[in-house]
Design a protein that fits this description.
This protein is mainly beta. It has six helices and 21 strands. Strands 2, 3, 4, 5, 9 and 17 form a six-stranded antiparallel β-sheet that branches. It has a five-stranded antiparallel β-sheet with strand order 1-8-15-11-10. A four-stranded antiparallel β-sheet has the order 20-19-18-21, with no helix packed on it. It starts with 19 loop residues before the first strand and ends with a strand.
């Protein structure tokens, strides 16, 4: 009988290789107005502190302060080129300051086009929950805000103080908006990637989304593959937003909040399940924001289709986007009558100025219309009427949409149940 000597070896699985993926979407601006859907839960239905420029889903409701996730999903228009992406992106408008040392005026700067890149590890990333809102700012540099001046040349403006930095924003010292002219000014910012798994927006000063602990704004341009902290364990795709200004004149410029600091906001209008399918299945071995990667086998590109591995010229992107734009919204007739350009002072102050009331009389096909209560008590909670809208997908009894009177922000409709209901105040 032969005896064999065997060595017991513990076998451990090899680490999975990260399959990094990038997908790019482009947008024109839908308009500029002094509203901010991210602030609705804090200040209610009124104008915001400063003017924002919007991109994405378009309807009479999408630039209003109380726009809902359902409004985004039901929007018939979109300034972007991906059918499935009905999200909303917005950031403070850029102003050129004319004659800053004498008869000063502020002229809004047009955005040529914007792009959103989603960067993620295939099969290891969770989709944004329906209706998530979040913000990226540059206070701690984690958002890695950059301003790139392509084709720089000396400022040649002849207005009074035009080629000087704008004093009140410390533009020269802060140095974000360039003093030199640029054939193209490209501003980009990165959003947080880690979610607490509970809240759709920040509450009571707490953060519902954060950056990964390893993310360092000085060392890393991409942080999508870093682990999330235990407090915010859910990993999102990393959204990089690029905003481009053609023929930037240089000199005195300022953001609409009076600063030289850029920030941006996001309201997810994706169907969570549809986006999750893309995140689980699309892979193109791109570990950064690549302009030639689109996940076009998983997304519907409006207008001209995309070809993977082929970068599209910026002028062609702009031209293609122009062909698929919805009819513009008459902002001054439906949201706010304010002039936002060629003004003597920046428009500032939350809940100042005129917000035009949304029409509550529009009948939506297939939606039950009833007389709504101005205030309604359900159980022990009092709700205030916000508006009417399409609530069919929620199986609600009517098309009346409310918010909690004591804790405004989220929007509710009511289906049959066992809670007592009392109409406390008729319209």
């Amino acid at each position: 009988m032969e005896l064999s000597m065997l060595l017991l070896v513990m076998v451990t699985p090899l680490p999975l290789l990260v399959k990094a993926t990038s997908m790019k979407m482009d947008f024109l601006s839908s308009g500029a107005v002094r509203t901010d859907p991210l602030m609705f839960s804090q200040i209610g239905e009124c104008l915001s502190d400063h003017v924002h420029r919007f991109y994405g889903a378009v309807s009479l409701r999408t630039m209003r302060p109380d726009v809902s996730y359902q409004d985004l999903r039901s929007a018939s228009g979109n300034t972007g080129n991906v059918e499935e992406n009905k999200s909303l992106y917005w950031n403070p408008a850029i102003y050129k300051v004319n004659n800053q040392n004498s008869e000063k005026t502020f002229k809004i700067v047009d955005v040529w086009f914007a792009s959103a890149y989603y960067i993620f590890s295939t099969g290891q990333t969770k989709a944004f929950p329906n209706g998530l809102k979040m913000k990226a700012g540059d206070e701690d540099n984690l958002s890695r805000v950059r301003a790139v001046c392509d084709g720089a040349s000396p400022c040649e403006r002849d207005d009074d103080g035009g080629c000087e930095g704008y004093g009140p924003s410390n533009q020269t010292q802060h140095g974000f908006l360039p003093l030199s002219a640029c054939a193209e000014l490209e501003i980009n910012i990165k959003f947080p990637t880690c979610w607490d798994g509970i809240n759709l927006e920040s509450k009571d000063g707490g953060k519902h989304v954060v950056y990964s602990e390893e993310c360092d704004g000085e060392l890393h341009n991409e942080c999508f593959d870093f682990d999330c902290p235990a407090s915010h364990p859910v990993k999102f795709p990393e959204v990089h937003l690029y905003v481009r200004v053609r023929n930037y004149e240089g000199g005195a410029h300022v953001f609409s909040d009076g600063s030289d600091i850029f920030h941006s906001d996001y309201f997810s209008g994706w169907d969570e399940k549809e986006l999750q399918y893309v995140l689980d299945n699309c892979e193109n071995d791109r570990d950064a924001a690549h302009p030639d990667a689109f996940c076009s086998d998983f997304l519907t590109f409006r207008g001209k289709p995309k070809q993977e591995g082929v970068q599209v010229d910026d002028f062609d992107i702009r031209s293609d986007l122009e062909k698929i734009q919805p009819d513009p919204i008459d902002i001054k007739s439906t949201i706010s009558p304010e002039n936002v350009s060629d003004i003597p002072e920046l428009l500032r102050g939350a809940c100042t100025g005129t917000l035009i009331a949304a029409s509550n009389t529009t009948t939506i096909p297939g939606v039950l219309t009833s007389e709504c209560c101005a205030e309604k008590k359900v159980g022990n909670t009092v709700y205030q009427l916000l508006r009417t809208g399409d609530t069919a997908s929620y199986n609600c009894l009517d098309n009346c949409i409310y918010q909690d009177k004591e804790n405004p922000g989220q929007q509710f409709c009511f289906m049959a149940g066992d809670l007592t209901s009392e109409c406390m105040k008729q319209q």
